[in-house]
Structure formats: C-alpha cells, structure tokens
Amino acid sequence: MSFRVQSRNFMNIKLELYKLCEDYVNQRLQTVEEIISSNKKALQSETKSSAGDKHETGRAMLQLEMEKAGQQLVGIFQMKEILAKIDVSRTSEIAHLGSIIETNSVNYFLSISAGQVRAKSKTYFAISVSSPIGKLLLGKKAGDEIVFNKKKDKVLKIT
After folding, report:
1. Which of 148, 92, 138, 151 is nearest to 111 (CA)?
2. 94 DSSP β-pair partners
3. What is the CA radius of gyration of the chain?
4. By three-state DSSP, how is residue 98 classified?
5. What does the pLDDT look like over 1-32, one tens digit per residue?
6. pLDDT tens profile 28-50
7. Are 103 and 156 in contact (CB under 8 A)?
8. pTM over 0.70
9. b/e per residue, 10-25, with b = 16+ CB within 10 A?
10. Which residues have CB under 8 Å from 62's CB, separation 6+?
C-alpha cells in the first residue's frame, strides 16, 4: 500500500511539473503571438512618407522583429512536440524524457528548458534532454555519479 501511495505522489509531482512546463510554453506562445500581431499592425499602418530612408529603416526593423518572432514560434512548437511525448504515468529506473531525477544537490525534470520550477514545496530544474546536463543525466540510474561544471553529484532517485 505504501508503494502505491508513494508512486501516486510522484505521479502527482510529475503531473504538476508537466503542467508548469505546459504553462511556460503557453505563456511564451501568447507573448510571441502578441508581438507578431503588434508588428503586423505596425507594418500595415506604415505608409510611404517623405521620410524616405527613415521609413524604410523602420519597415526593415519590423521585418527583422517578425523573423525573430517566427523563429521563436518554431522553438515553441518544438517544445510542445516534446511535451506531447512525455507520459507522466511512466516510471523507470533509468532516466528518460519525463523523468524526475533527484541528486544530492539538485532536482531535475527531464522535459523542456523551462528553468526553475516549484512543485510540492520542492525546487526542480526543468531541463531539455538535449542540454549539456540533460545529455549527462539521460540513461543514468540511482547510485550513478555525474560531474557537471567540475562539480560531482550523485543520482539519488529517478521516478
């Protein structure tokens, strides 16, 4: 019985971390969509004026902002795809996409690069499996040691 309660508790934490990552992606998406909308309106309201070069520079700057926002959209959709691959109910002794990894100094959630998040009064770092620390943790088991930035850590638990 205690195993099920413990397992359910970790699923709840994993689900909470997943939802925090989803919220992070959705907030970024909303921000980028607002930027794109604002820039489209600015481009449409720009009219040829006697300013000449100044007008063209303004349009070019808006175009660059639009391209940058477009690139950010691509990254956001990639993060959404990664999140869609995570099964919060899956547990394993080996670190994989969707794992919670507790070390003697830091807790990680292998998902997307969303930074520091809090769940159940604990701090976790939501990291991508393609980040340097993510690559290092992928495939590790409890008891394994890692060295990152010249700092040694021991993997205590993987869920």
Report:
1. 138
2. 141
3. 21
4. coil
5. 333 434 556 568 999 999 999 999 999 999 99
6. 999 999 999 988 888 777 654 54
7. yes
8. yes
9. beebbebbbebbbebb
10. 39, 42, 43, 46
